[in-house]
Design goal:
The chain is 43% helix and 13% strand. It is of the alpha/beta class. It is found in: Cytoplasm.
Length: 571
DNA sequence: GCCGTTTTCGGCCCGACTGTTTTCAGTCG
């Protein structure tokens, strides 16, 4: 079965190849925009095709692309892609990843000098054959060589929590500059994506040059890639790229909106502006030369008759239509969270005791937490067998007697065995307030068996929540193969909740799966999987992810009061 | 290649920076 991601990848590859071939840029854009649409869908294209639904109803997909998708689904390959791959040497795509080298220059280098690989490029640059070409000079040649040599050490996307450290540090540095009135980190950081490609920092100040000079002095900067009056790009020692933009106060809202993106969202809204005879850029909304809005984001949205849309939703995944119809979700906020339903103690692989975790939960302002240590199968983590679990339950009962207006719920993170059975007998699971189940082994089962495994686990009436349902690690591993639609529908049928694991390295479910779960009516638990007291604060990342999945307070299990929670857990 | 409350043809979001150029193409976000 063809996954959405595979279809999107095929279209993106084809777009890259067509671009190098010098195809019409709008045709290239059409492939990219279709890929983006497909990636953001919360339904499987394959399922749509099975149900014979019309793909041309999707944004940016017309008859031709619908046919191509059908071919891809039916045969597993795309003739147009295979043909383009025949015509363009495979090394050329890699060359476009070099900073300052785009499709046009790569094509010229190939046509004129036969350069089709990184090595050939470096050699040509060293032999000064590139600067001999028209349109290329000494500086370009030198830059190409530098960037080609940097290519291997360039970081990919940076995890949000790591980006946050750099962003906060630089934000504080810039705030110390004279004449700076405001500093905001925009881009995918503000949209709270799980990873960021670079940081976009917006500065309100009158004198751009002074800000740029100040930025360049920050100790974490490795080099300044470019620097103008309103824009500078720097590379940090960590490998992260940062773009700093300086705008005047009257353009702050327009610039914030503009640099928050996503690009797909911005393009869609700017089209709406064009249809109204308006132009939106980072300085404001304009009718001719007259600025109609720009000071605030709300005013910019108002010019195209939209309410303010939360950054987390700005992915062009239906938020604009929802806004037009007055159907935007009232997104959950961190204050809505009343407890944390996944954490470990020193009984297994946690770093803090039961009492310390309870105290940490109280300090977080919660009404309850659940202690969910590992089960026996996870020997590496000193997992609990029935006897040790019962000892812990007794200890929790004792602790609860001393606590006021705070409850420690009795739970476990029980392993799901290969056949979908659970790692502890039903009689001990029956003594718990709730049962969290998850997969920690045999990630390599095929899609059907892995899906069945989760469904069988959910068949057990004691199971309340499936933790980190896909097993993926951000920037680490993809997670096991699953038919998410079946998992989500299975959870809905059985009244089982799915988790958003708030560990920044997990964020599992991911945003589109969260939305899929919401649409199926599955209740979500946002939980930190804390292994130390300091990690309870990771809840914020989980709430971010929930917002990206359009969740409202009522969609989330642990916004409930304790009484409501117990009721919701009944299956 | 997509799309239509100006359009079924002729548009398609918008601007900063750089280098190689004497007016702009290429790249990037």
């Amino acid at each position: 079965m063809m996954q959405n991601a595979e279809i999107a990848r095929a279209f993106n590859q084809l777009a890259d190849l067509l671009e190098i071939q010098g195809a019409n840029t709008f045709r290239v854009r059409a492939y990219r925009s279709a890929a983006q649409t497909i990636e953001g869908l919360s339904v499987a294209i394959a399922d749509m095709l099975e149900r014979e639904e019309d793909l041309t109803t999707l944004d940016g997909i017309g008859k031709d692309l619908a046919d191509k998708i059908a071919t891809l689904h039916r045969t597993g390959s795309l003739p147009a892609l295979a043909e383009a791959q025949q015509q363009v040497p495979p090394g050329l795509i890699e060359l476009t990843r070099i900073d300052s080298l785009g499709p046009k220059r790569v094509k010229t280098l190939y046509d004129e000098l036969g350069i089709d690989s990184l090595d050939a490029l470096k050699q040509a640059a060293r032999e000064q054959r590139i600067s001999a070409l028209s349109g290329f000079g000494d500086k370009t040649e030198k830059k190409i060589l530098e960037e080609a040599e940097r290519l291997n050490q360039q970081a990919g996307r940076t995890r949000l929590d790591e980006a946050q450290q750099a962003a906060e540090g630089l934000r504080q540095h810039i705030e110390q500059c004279d004449g700076v009135e405001q500093v905001v980190v925009a881009g995918s950081y503000r949209r709270r994506r799980e990873t960021v490609g670079d940081l976009d920092i917006l500065v309100v100040a009158e004198e751009g040059r002074r800000v740029m000079a100040h930025v360049a002095e920050w100790e974490e900067i490795e080099r300044v890639a470019l620097s103008g009056d309103t824009k500078t790009t720097v590379h940090l020692k960590s490998g992260l790229q940062v773009d700093v933009r300086v705008v005047p106060e009257e353009s702050f809202g327009a610039a914030l909106y503009y640099f928050t993106g996503s690009q797909a969202h911005n393009v869609a809204v700017r089209k709406m502006a064009v249809a109204r005879g308006l132009k939106i850029n980072e300085y404001g909304v304009f009718k001719g030369d007259r600025q109609l809005a720009g000071h605030t984001e709300e005013a910019v949205f108002a010019q195209v008759e939209l309410p303010w849309i939360a950054p987390e939703l700005r992915e062009n995944r239906g938020e604009i239509e929802a806004a037009q119809r007055g159907k935007l979700p009232q997104l959950i906020t961190p204050d809505d969270i009343r407890g944390d339903l996944h954490m470990h103690t020193t009984a297994t692989d946690g770093k803090a005791s039961l009492e310390e975790m309870a105290e940490a939960g109280r300090r977080q302002g919660y009404n309850y937490i659940a202690i969910t240590d590992h089960s026996q199968r996870l020997a590496m983590a000193n997992g609990l067998d029935a006897r040790r679990l019962r000892e812990q339950l007794t200890a929790i009962d004792k602790l609860n007697e001393q606590l006021k207006r705070f409850t420690v719920l009795k739970s476990i993170e029980v392993d799901i065995l290969e056949d979908g059975q659970l790692d502890l007998p039903d009689d001990v699971l029956a003594e718990l307030d709730l049962c969290v189940a998850s997969i920690h082994s045999r990630f390599n089962l095929d899609r059907d068996r892995q899906t069945e495994r989760l469904l069988r686990a959910m068949d057990n009436p004691h199971v309340s929540i499936i933790a980190h349902p896909t097993g993926r690690i951000v920037n680490g591993r993809d997670g096991y193969e699953l038919d998410m639609q079946r998992v989500v529908d299975g959870a809905a049928d059985r009244g089982v909740c799915l988790e958003i694991n708030a560990q920044p390295a997990r964020l599992d479910l991911r945003d589109i799966h969260v939305r899929m779960a919401k649409e199926a009516g599955v209740l979500i638990s946002i939980a930190t999987d804390s292994h130390a007291t300091g990690q309870l604060a990771h809840m914020a990342f989980g709430v971010d992810q929930a917002r990206r999945g359009w969740l409202e307070k009522d969609d989330v299990l642990n916004t409930r009061t304790l009484t409501q929670l117990r009721k919701a857990l009944k299956r």
